[in-house]
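Hey all, quick one. A colleague (J.T.) asked me to put the zinc ion job into the tracker so the inputs and the structure tokens live in one place instead of scattered across chat threads. No bug as far as I know, just bookkeeping. Sequence used:
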Amino acid sequence: MSINRTVSDYYKDELMRISKVTPLAGSSAFLISTKQKAALVDSGFAFCADKMIENIKAVLGGRPLDSILLTHSHYDHASGSGRCRLAYKDLKVVASEYAAKILSKPSALSVISELNQSAAEQYGAKFSEGDLGDLSVDIIVRDGDTIDLGDVSLRVLEAPGHTKCCISFYIPRNKTLISCESLGASADGYSVAPGFLVSYKSSVNYIERLLELNIENLFVPHFGVLRGEACAEFMKRALKTSEALKDLIVNDYLQGKTVEEIIEHYKDVYYNGNLHSIQPPRAFYMNAEHLVPMVIKEMVLPAN
Ligand SMILES: [Zn+2]
């Protein structure tokens, strides 16, 4: 497995630091640390979590990781929690109520395990079922809740659209947002991979709500941080790209294409070389099989 062990800071000021700790771009995780506390936003894949923990230790030294804040329950964001629990005994996993429900379901855990296995194969790494460990959620948070990290506090924003369980974390003091994938994801910080799996409309509402916050540091899932004007530009591009994908689906459907044909059209236009690094083909198809029928149901069928 070719992995990146270098730890670097995405953001640093006198009160806080946000560091890159993921060994693989497909495995989403950002480390926020203050003088008093440390929290990992998302825990990435399970099969590379031990490498990630080495990176966390490189930042924190002997200090503990206090919490994992999950943006949602997908396997590329929430699978590393069990390995982290083994390394940090008092660690608390924080997520939305819906994410807690999903992460307690044996059927969901078996899908998570299976997807880790197939991603591990893709990266030439090893993974077996027992490696997942305990992925359960300890603390449930809701829209507007505050998470105390000592000198810095985070506000929870419920942001359904990518999944029902999506939440984002906003740091008012420096207008920093660590976003869930209802914004979309990106491999390069420019192109947007739309992520609306359960609702196009909710995703658009969320992005429009973000634009009003005048974000100065935007953490984009699977990419890293954008600063200044690039934040609003990314959000506007996310809105345009999402609308264009919605239109592609609606037009294809109205022309009589099947869901399978629409998914292939979607893949040809949106799943470019760039995206392979953050989303394996299997995950693309699993997502598209939700997204395409959802858009037809949400955008076409009510009008008929
Ligand atoms: Zn996801």
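Adding what we noticed when we looked at it: The domain at 8-240 is CATH 3.60.15.10 (Metallo-beta-lactamase; Chain A). The mean pLDDT is 93.
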